Amino acid sequence: MATAQHRAQKERPCDACRRRKIRCIRVPADSELCALCQSRSESCTFVQDPPRKRKRQQPQDNHNNNNNNLVGSNARSPASGIPSASPAQDDELPGTSLLRETLGHKITRSIDYIGPTTEYDASLLQLFRFDQGDEHVSATGSIIRRVNRNTHVTVRPSTQEESDSNIKYLDTIEGIVAPHGQALVDIYFRIVHPSYPILHKKVFLEKYGRNYHELTPTCLAAVYILALNWWSYSPNLVRLKKPNVQELEELFPKLMLDIYRRPKPSDLQAGLIFCQRPDGSSWVMMGELMAMAQTVGLHLDCSDWRLPEWERALRKRLAWAVYIQDKWGALIHGRPATIVRDNWDVRPVGKSDFPETAKDDDDEEGSSEVEKGMVIFMNLISLTEILSEILDAFFTLKALKEKVSPAEVLGRAKPLQIKLKTWYSQLPPSLVMEETKPRKLSSTGHLHLAYFCAEITLHRAILRSLDTPSTDQQLRSITRAAARARFTSAIDFVKRLKPEHLQSFWFFASKINLAIIGTFGCMLWATSETKEERDFYRQQLAEFRWTLRLSSTAAEFMKFTVAMLDDSPVFALDPSRHGTDFSDRQSNENQSPDDMGLPPGSGYAANFDCDSLNSNEYWLEYSAFSFGGVPTGHHGDSNLAASITPPDFYNAG
């Protein structure tokens, strides 16, 4: 009898480990004391009973909308039919669970990467004794986990207070959308997830299906918030009253503030999902997300980490999503990017890093295609790497202060332009704008828009260097014609958007990317040298505005650019009463962009020495890489460019 009791005690955690919610480890296995009690010179006791399962709370009729009471005693309980109980522990997980041996996806644990300059050192950490789970319990009770020979993280169990707070928040979130939680999850994985695959669908659904208390409050709220944008895409929801999304949006920042000491990968996923709302991009939040990413070690190569294969693949996808957010966030906010090449060691993603395939496509009308979304995501990553090079070459503080000749600027721009052209030419047929399937949404629109924005960003840098009276007129004509071709191509792209594109997922930068196209057109209008050229850009901008006005009924984020153009000097002022004749700008070389109503950085500020341009070499090279794809039918300076473009330029090398 005593032997059976002793065996039973060894198979469950002692009171001290149970209070700390950590694994009760005995080294050696037949030891009377666990590692924690040995380190504290205490006896292992088994007096306390295991915590009771929480009973399902009954829904309440009244709800206090005061934000200060969101986690108080009157927070709403869920009514969606999902059991409200404590999260499953490791020994309660089914044998097929994906959560066994996971590093960062258990609700009761958070991790913190141990960097090379901390109080720890890899050479000393290698001397620690690790158990079969690669964990070491220190004398202070802290847990260190070894993920490969030289990489370690500290594991922090949640306190009871934190767990209780999470459950109250989760019940509040579920109560806001009840009884529609499951339907919103279905919408998210039908429409958003295929194009933005930063969650692991099976892991999320395993947790949610067993008990939504196993999810983090941030992740559950973010999924609901974004899914509510497609409320009408569920035939079961379209006639019902839509939950108050503002209530969730106001709660979300409080949730993020609550977890800053104990972030999990799922909190990072939640922040990225929340930022994909048309008005969700925040540079301050981006800084918080970057800190989270580094805390959980996403900037590291995890290829040889002792983790489940699905988790390594998810970490790679999530890391590159952070990279995309950082670089495009830097562009649209006009800030320095946070990620630098020397501190980024993440391998490229491949098809094997995406667990879903075409077989997982949802047959319901209005769903997104899984494989197309995967290819879009991979190509957005490679495009973002080119954008990063453009930002580093032309838009760092150092680059903006440099006195660089037009020849040097063109020399830097040429390889980047070729990379952009190569990227575009290598897009698979499935990503052609015209390639849509009946009753399926297509997110190719935001990828093509990002490409045009990257092209225009490069051309803004080129025009900035050339926009001085001393620049050779032929060089000016060629570069302006190239810019004109890019601008008109971007407008043609917007005109070709179909309802399948407009109603689908657009990543966070799309709203400002559209506005950047409008700003570029306004710059070209403002710096036009003839009335004919000025009228041309005004007409193009009017068409652009009209197209966006029509499309904005299906894609509301486009209204931002419409309003911006309405307020621009192009339309807000009567052209016949402009006090400044831009054709006389050579006599106004000391006039600043602000004096002329131009956006900052649009030119007229720097004087470049063009004496080095004593031959046609740079004109020929620039026209070659800029005009290989100029559409026919454009008149003006583009004819000059076409006439001097070597026909075999793109076929060489």
Task: Compile the SSE list and pairings.
Elements: H1 2-10, H2 15-20, H3 35-39, E1 109-113, H4 122-125, E2 135-137, E3 143-148, E4 151-157, H5 160-177, H6 181-192, H7 201-210, H8 217-227, H9 245-258, H10 265-275, H11 283-295, H12 309-333, E5 367-368, H13 370-394, H14 397-401, H15 406-425, E6 440-441, H16 444-466, H17 473-495, H18 499-502, H19 510-526, H20 531-551, H21 559-566, H22 569-572, H23 617-626, H24 637-643
Parallel strand pairs: 5-6
Antiparallel strand pairs: 1-4, 2-3, 3-4
Helix pairs in contact: 5-8, 6-8, 8-9, 8-10, 10-11, 10-12, 11-12, 12-13, 13-15, 13-16, 15-16, 15-23, 16-17, 16-19, 17-19, 17-20, 17-23, 17-24, 19-20, 19-21, 20-21
Defining key terms:
zinc ion binding, mainly alpha, four-stranded antiparallel beta sheet, 3 domains, 653 residues, XnlR_reg_dom, two-stranded parallel ribbon, Zn2Cys6_DnaBD, disordered C terminus, metal-binding, 24 helices, nucleus
Unreliable parts: 1-7, 55-85, 575-653
| Overall mean pLDDT | 81
Distance between termini? 82 Å
Element string (H = helix, E = strand):
HHHEHEEEHHHHHHHHEHHHEHHHHHHHHH
Portion of residues in beta strands equals under 5%
Order the strands across the largest sheet as they lie in space. 1-4-3-2
Q: What number of domains?
A: 3
How would you sum up the global shape?
globular
Helix count from the secondary structure assignment: 24
| Number of DSSP strand runs | 6
Rg (C-alpha, Å): 29 Å
Kindly state the percentage of residues in helix.
40-55%
The chain-level structural class is mainly alpha
